[in-house]
Amino acid sequence: MSKIGKVTGALALAALMGATPALAQDSGIRGKQAGDLVVGLGAIGVLPENGRNSRVELVGGRVRASNAYTGQVDFTYFLNRNISLNLIVASTQHDLTAKGTALGNVALGSVWALPPTLTLQYHPLPNSRFSPYVGAGLNYTFFYGYGHSGANPAIRNVAVNGAPGFALNAGLDVEISGPWGLNLDVKKIWLSPNAAVGTNLGVKLHARTELNPLVIGASVRYRFSL
C-alpha cells in the first residue's frame, strides 16, 4: 500500500470511529474542555515519499531523502471541546542521494530538516476515553546542518531551500488517568523544495524535489487547564 493510501486509510478509520455512537459515552472520563493546553513528548518517524516529479537538471535522475526518526515535542490548545490547534516541533537528519542520473546513483550528503507544522483539528468524541480526530494545516520546513558523506569526490556541497507545505492529519487521543494521556498521530505533508548541488567541476546543478513525507508519531501527553 502506498503512503498516501495509508493516510487515506487512517482518515477513514478516524471517521468511522467518529460515527460510532457506542464510543461517545465513557463514565469516569473528564474529556476535553475549552482552554486545555496539552503538551506531548514522544517519537516520530519522517518517511519521505520521494515522488516521481523530482528532477535533477543536466544529469537527470531524482533526489531521494532517507527515512529518519527522532524525538518530538507537541502542543495542543483547545478552542472548545471539539476544535483544537496543534503544533509539532522536531528535527530530523536525512541522507540525500540522486538516483538514476547519467552518472549513476550519486551520494549528495546529508541535511537536517526542521518542519514545524500547525494543524486545526476536529475531535468528534470529546467525552470518550478513545478520542479520534482529523485535521488540516500548514507546514514550513527549514533545512540546515549540511554534511558531506565523502562518498563522491565530485560533490562539494548541497543546499535545500526552505519551503511551505500543506498537511492532512489524523490521530487518536487516549485518556489514561487524571491529566495523563497517550497520543497516536499521522500527518501527510505535501512538500517540494528546490535544491542546488555544488560540484568540484565548477558546475552547479539545480534540482526540484518531491519529498511529500509521511510523519508518524506516538507520545505521552500531559494536560494543563488554563
Task: Describe what this molecule looks like in 3D.
With 226 residues, the chain is mostly beta strands. The chain has a single domain, classed as Porin (Beta Barrel), CATH 2.40.160.20. The protein has one helix and 15 strands, in the order H-E-E-E-E-E-E-E-E-E-E-E-E-E-E-E. The chain has one helix at residues 3-18; strands spanning 36-47, 55-56, 62-65, 68-78, 83-89, 92-101, 104-114, 117-122, 130-147, 155-160, 163-177, 180-190, 194-199, 204-208, 214-225. The chain has an eight-stranded antiparallel beta barrel with strand order 1-4-5-8-9-11-12-15. Strand 8 (117-122) and strand 9 (130-147) form a beta hairpin.
